[in-house]
Amino acid sequence: MFDCRCLSTNLVSNGTMKSRRIEFGDINGVDDALSIYGLMIERKPLPNTRLFNNLLSRLVKLKQYTVAISLFRDISILGVSIDNYAMNIAINCYCNSHRVDFGFSMLAAFFKRGYMLDAATVSPLLKGLFQENRIAEAQNLFRKIVREELCEMNNIIFGVVVDGLCKAGNTAMAIQLLRVMEKGSCRPDTHKYNMIIDGLCKDKLLDSAMKLFDEMPHKGIDRDVFTYNVLINGLSTFGQWKEVKALWKEMIDCKIYPNVITFTTVIDALCKEGLVDKAHDLLNIMIQKIMFLL
DNA sequence: GTAGGGTTAG
């Protein structure tokens, strides 16, 4: 845990800097963020909550979750008013540092202040539960949110749950969720199909993966290079070369061009199957493509 | 000038 008491060593304080507008664009690392924080807490009166939230969100983007939590605690002590944005940031930081229970424990204060749950509160909590492999709890929470209409649903919440279910090997439920989404206002998108197709391939359910892939155009969902890559990855892992070849041709016909991942996926699978000559041919094609670009 | 999500290889 980062200790705020060491902040004084990170201060860049002089008279001219103090009068200038705080610039967050210059933050490239945690040291920059702490320097700015040092300047902010020297100001009298203290900057408003939004400015501190801005700094906290920069730390989140830098994945400096424990530092952000320390600063969150520090500004509370300094008397900066804590709003729902700040609390959601702190909850997210706990969830991202495998301390989802701390995130939940913040909800008491959250409700006490009269704040309402929204997608920015619940999606990190759901994600945190899935990441800590607390799958049943995540599913129960999601069901409770839907059943009791605890917050407005959006595509991000569905994204967290589809991802969590797929990674937990529960692709059947992820597909069920896809069907629920089709009937509501948050429609499934390419990314969700890609996640499920990938999950199905990893569970060796290639037929189901192919089925989802086939239904995409009928449902008005565009396929992208990820869609082809995850499916090609699944098919080549299980030596289904005829299908891989067909997909390779199809993607080019659709002007979705194989990228470095497509090439390396197939080359890797060919090598593992002992088809080194074929892998070599593909490598040569790849080199020719690179030469063409140079 | 504020908060939340996700896919492929090695």
Summarize the structure in words:
This protein is mainly α and 294 residues long. It has a domain at 1-94. Helix content is 70%, strand content 0%. It has 17 helices and no strands. The chain has helices at 15-19, 30-42, 49-61, 65-78, 84-96, 100-105, 107-112, 119-131, 135-147, 155-167, 171-183, 190-202, 206-218, 225-237, 241-253, 260-272, 276-293. Helix 8 (119-131) runs parallel beside helix 10, helix 10 packs antiparallel against helix 11 and helix 13 (206-218) packs antiparallel against helix 14. The structure holds one DNA strand of 10 nucleotides. Belongs to the PPR family. P subfamily. This is Pentatricopeptide repeat-containing protein. PPR repeats lie at residues 154-188, 189-223, 224-258, 259-289. GO terms for molecular function: mRNA binding. Keywords: Repeat.
Task: List the defining traits of the structure above.
294 residues, 17 helices, DNA-binding, globular
Mean pLDDT: 91
Uncertain regions: pLDDT < 50 for 5+ in a row? 1-18
Subunit organisation of the chains? single chain
Order of helices and strands: HHHHHHHHHHHHHHHHH
The shape, in one word, is globular
Helix percentage: 55-70%
- Count of helices? 17
| Strands, total number | 0
Which structural category fits the helices and strands?
Answer: mainly alpha
Terminal-residue CA separation:
48 Å
Radius of gyration: 24 Å
Largest sheet: none
Beta-strand residue percentage? under 5%
InterPro entries: Mito_RNA_Proc_CCM1 (IPR051114), PPR_rpt (IPR002885), TPR-like_helical_dom_sf (IPR011990)
Protein name: Pentatricopeptide repeat-containing protein
GO cellular component, one term: mitochondrion
PPR repeats: 154-188, 189-223, 224-258, 259-289
